[in-house]
Design brief:
The complex is a heterodimer of chains A (196) and B (324). Chain A is of the alpha/beta class and 196 residues long. Chain A has helices spanning 16-25, 52-61, 64-70, 80-85, 171-184; strands at residues 6-10, 29-33, 44-47, 74-78, 95-98, 109-115, 122-126, 131-135, 140-145, 148-154, 157-160. The longest helix of chain B has 20 residues, at 267-286. Chain B has an eight-stranded parallel beta sheet with strand order 8-7-6-5-4-3-2-9, with helices on both faces. Classes of the chains: A alpha/beta (196), B alpha/beta (324).
Chain lengths: 196, 324
């Protein structure tokens, strides 16, 4: 089903290679995005983990920040990517996010994330991760750690405070491709949870 | 779950997950994965750290003196003063790395206590041990180590390094040794890929590296950890060259803060010059294959660091040979 989807991965800085590999493994056609014109013709966009200050600086230099605001397809932000999309940055996601909320690198950790409607947890890698402190009414929780939201959806946006691209479990990326398909070619009956 | 988010989570601030694993190899190498495509800048104090963060550095490296000054002043180069490191940590939100001397595990213990985000066991400082490196598996904080060839990189990885940087020749502004070391590491990887399985045992012996790591590299065509380049990067073109040769990102030391107008004559002019050069190197590292962007960002940067030709250095002043 994903064969014809064209997904861009923002490749300004960070762990973009892992997203490219994961999405290609799922049958998507993937392009690296560094300049605004490279967003043309894409069905979806991934904003990877990295340093959000660096990514924002580079996004502003070549007009990419504005182009991402105008982009109509589904967007998946992981870690720094979630920060880039929040109220204080690009303002696309109705979220207030605290950077490095667990502390410095010695407080980075791995833990199992509970997924809505799923028996099998998702192993999450949290690296100097942000935390969601406030979310608007349109934000839906898809994954929790100790009762806190770590994977959420808001319309065409999917946001994770951890790194699904650093494990072999592709369920979150599969969900994203499903969202991309329904955003770019709307049909009825989109399930709200990963379908596995 | 699966319902609307219920708003404010601020009251749970500062909590620790009930079941979590810390300091795992995946968490250590994972931070390096997040730094890829970025520039890590050497800084000696909080002011330089702010300039670096503002310019788009993905991390800063705290050290006592930049390599060009270590070269000029001579003497023993050691870990930075912990107070300086704390000031840098307070000044910026990006990761803060710091250097310890090769084999100086007490400096490493102190840096872990300070909660630096990465420890660089670095040949730029004066080695504390001429035979042994730090046993990096013992730490929660990840380590980056220098290497000049594949065997050296794999020996550091077997000691627990979670990131490698090719050494180059720090503090010279001369890119030649960085190129030599990258070609040595990446070329050796390509050669391994051409070997039969039974030939890898002899290759492990030749490289003086563990067989399991040699086999992994032969199968995967890369090092098992992120590999940055360092030593002699002074211009946006230098950064692009390193990225095109296969680096995952670059370290820049003296090349930024030793460039521009003389800070003693014109402090503000110097600050403008270094900030502009730092931003240009960040952009060149991202757009490393785009010659149009590279031409733009390389224009009008002022005086690059004067530098020293690495081939004129006497043997006892070459830092690349430190590490065993």
């Amino acid at each position: 089903m994903n064969g014809s989807l064209r997904i861009g991965v923002l490749a300004l800085q960070g762990a973009f290679r892992e997203h490219v590999q994961m999405l290609e493994g799922l049958g998507a056609e993937v392009v690296e995005v560094r300049l605004p014109e490279e967003l043309a013709g894409l069905d979806g966009l991934v904003i990877p983990g990295g340093e959000s200050t660096t990514i924002m600086r580079l996004a502003h230099s070549y007009g990419l920040a504005e182009a991402i605001r105008a982009f109509q397809g589904a967007i998946f932000g992981t870690c720094a990517g979630m920060i880039v999309l929040d109220r204080d940055h690009l303002g696309l996601a109705d979220l207030e996010v605290e950077r490095n909320a667990y502390g410095r690198q010695v407080r980075s950790f791995e833990a199992d994330v509970e997924l809505a409607g799923e028996k099998r947890p998702l192993h999450g890698v949290f690296i100097r991760s942000p935390r969601i402190h406030d979310a608007g009414a349109g934000v839906e929780v898809l994954g929790e750690l100790d009762g806190e939201p770590v994977l959420v959806r808001e319309g065409r946006l999917l946001l994770a405070s951890f790194h699904p691209e650093l494990t072999d479990d592709s369920r979150v990326h599969e969900l994203f491709l499903e969202m991309v398909e329904h955003t770019s070619r709307p049909v009825s009956g989109l399930s709200l949870i990963p379908t596995h | 779950m699966g319902t609307a988010c219920e708003g404010d989570f601020a009251e749970t601030r500062g909590y620790t997950p009930t079941v979590a694993e810390y300091g795992t190899l995946r968490v250590k190498t994972g931070l390096a994965e997040m730094l890829k495509g970025g520039v890590i800048m050497d800084v000696v104090d909080a002011d330089q750290a702010r300039i670096a963060e503002e310019a788009g550095a993905c991390a800063v490296m705290a050290l006592e003196r930049v390599p060009a000054d270590i070269r000029r002043d001579g003497g023993v180069a050691r870990m930075s003063d912990p107070q300086r490191i704390r000031e840098i940590q307070e000044a910026v939100s990006i990761p803060v790395m710091a250097k310890c001397r090769i084999g100086h595990f007490a400096e490493a213990q102190i840096l872990q206590e300070l909660e630096v985000d990465y420890i660089d066991e670095s040949e730029v400082l004066t080695p504390a041990d001429v035979e042994h490196h730090v046993d990096k598996w013992l730490y929660t904080v990840p380590f980056v180590c220098g290497a000049t060839n594949l065997g050296e990189a794999l020996r550091r990885i077997s000691e627990g390094a979670a990131m490698i940087r090719t050494k180059g020749e720090a503090g010279t502004g001369d890119i030649v040794n960085a190129v030599t070391h990258m070609r040595a590491v990446f070329g050796a990887i390509r050669s391994l890929q051409a070997l039969r399985g039974d030939e890898l045992h002899a290759a492990a012996k030749d490289h003086r590296a563990p067989f399991e790591l040699i086999r992994w590299v032969a199968e995967n065509g890369r090092l098992p950890v992120v590999t940055f380049t360092a030593g002699g990067i002074a211009t946006p073109a230098d950064a692009s060259l390193c990225m095109q040769l296969g680096a995952d990102g670059v370290f820049v030391g003296s090349g930024i803060f030793k460039s521009g107008r003389d800070p003693l004559d014109d402090r503000d002019g110097w600050a403008d010059d270094v900030a502009r050069r730092a931003r240009a190197i960040v952009e060149a590292t991202t757009h490393f294959e785009d010659a149009k962007v590279l031409a733009d960002v390389s224009s009008g940067l002022g005086q690059p660091m004067v530098g020293i030709s690495a081939s004129t250095l006497p043997d006892d002043e070459r830092l690349e040979v430190r590490g065993w």
